[in-house]
Amino acid sequence: MIELVSAERCVACDRCIRVCPTDVFERGADGVPVIARQDDCQTCFQCEANCPADALFVAPYTHPQPQDPAVRDERRLADAGLLGSYRAQIGWGRGRTPGALRAIGPALGPAAQATPITS
């Protein structure tokens, strides 16, 4: 579920607003998107994946959790490398490579890689 939009990092590009399939965000008066309908978030990570400034944090749960202030503590999330971490895992962004092709399936061991697939 979307938990944080960093006003400090945001470049007001509106990509998160445009890609959100459930219209979770609204454009704030200062241009920074605000989380207007958090309960509508489907935890699809599209906003975080498309944010060029790594200004978003989507927590990996789809249902409301007991209030955990750590998921909205920007400094703590930044220090832990969690702001934009989904985007980094899928290799999106300048200078990144998909060290996370495993994001689409399990890592294959040497035996599985050497075994040809026959039909």
How would you portray this structure in words?
It is a single chain. This protein is of the alpha+beta class and 119 residues long. The protein has one domain (2-101): Alpha-Beta Plaits (2-Layer Sandwich), CATH 3.30.70. The protein is 22% helix and 11% strand. The protein has five helices and four strands, in the order βαββαβααα. The protein has helices at 15-19, 46-50, 74-79, 85-89, 110-114; strands spanning 2-5, 25-27, 33-35, 56-58. The strands form two sheets. It has a two-stranded antiparallel ribbon with strand order 1-4. It has a two-stranded antiparallel sheet with strand order 2-3. A hairpin with a 5-residue loop joins strand 2 and strand 3 (33-35). The chain is globular. The termini are far apart. The model has no long low-confidence stretch (mean pLDDT 82).
